[in-house]
UniProtKB/TrEMBL annotation:
Name used for this protein in its record: Glycerophosphoryl diester phosphodiesterase
Source organism phylogeny: Bacteria, Bacillati, Bacillota, Bacilli, Bacillales
Superkingdom of origin organism: Bacteria
Domain GP-PDE: 4-240
Gene: glpQ_2
Pfam families membership: GDPD (PF03009)
Species of provenance: Paenibacillus glycanilyticus
Length: 243
């Protein structure tokens, strides 16, 4: 078994409010070696980390991120929905996460959430932010919007990209190559060991989401995936420690 990158999905989101600094910090404490996060853009162009296009589910405010100014987005309570003890948690900026990751040598998987809402210039903005921290070799950009990944690869071919998909791709590695991506960010329903091996022969890696069952983590490691994206990084960390 090879080792894998232990990506905490939206941080340690099984036990902490997703996409908040406490979820990211705790993930690293629990043994994550990577953080997966979702980026959206405010009305005035700030890059903020929140999964949904709308603020409602995690803050209670019935508005789109894209129609709200950063000053308001950044002061919202993004923790109480999960548990009252997290009432002080806020929606972070991409910069806040990159600072933490740089300090702790953690890989960051930035998912561009531009499938439903269009964010003109999102790719360039994310890339310039990553470059300003000199973290091109510590980041992988993924998206379900594959046009967007082509744009990322055009702007910054040195930053790796990953094709997000649920299922149904024929010869996924070939498709990844056609987009210029070096990784397949596959749903756990879309992984067969022989495909992982075939992709590896063509230098395309698999990072698989969202895997919370330790037995499935072990199977995927045996299949040779490069990364596992989980809500419970402590479970994967325990496997990697041989417990
Ligand atoms: O990046 C893997 C996974 O996060 C994609 O789905 O909906 O959790 O953003 P979602
Ligand atoms: Ca995501």
């Amino acid at each position: 078994m090879t080792t894998v990158v232990n990506y905490a999905h939206r941080g340690a989101s099984g036990n902490y409010p997703e996409n908040t600094m406490i979820a990211f910090e705790q993930a690293i404490t629990l043994g994550a070696t990577g953080i997966e996060t979702d980026v959206q853009m405010t009305k005035d162009g700030r890059l903020v980390l929140i999964h949904d296009e709308k603020l409602r589910r995690t803050t209670g405010v019935n508005a789109l991120v894209a129609e709200t100014l950063a000053d308001e987005v950044l002061q919202l309570d993004a923790g109480s929905w999960f548990s009252p003890e997290f009432k002080d948690a806020r929606i972070p900026t991409l910069e806040q996460l990159l600072e933490l990751a740089k300090r702790t040598h953690t890989i960051v998987n930035i998912e561009l959430k531009n499938g439903i809402v269009e964010y003109p210039g999102l790719e360039r903005k994310v890339i310039e932010t990553v470059q300003s921290y000199r973290m091109s070799d510590q980041v992988i950009i993924s998206s379900f919007n594959h046009y967007s990944l082509i744009e990322c690869n055009r702007i910054a071919p040195e930053i790796p990209t990953g094709i997000l998909y649920m299922e149904g791709l024929y010869r996924p590695w070939k498709y990844a190559k056609s987009v210029g991506a070096s990784a397949l960010h596959a749903s756990r329903y879309a992984v067969l060991p022989e495909w992982v091996a075939e992709a590896a022969q063509h230098d395309v890696i698999y990072n698989v989401f969202t895997v919370n069952d330790p037995a499935e983590m072990k199977r995927l490691m045996q299949a040779g995936v490069a990364g596992i994206i989980t809500d419970y990084p402590e479970r994967l960390a325990a496997i990697l420690r041989g417990q």
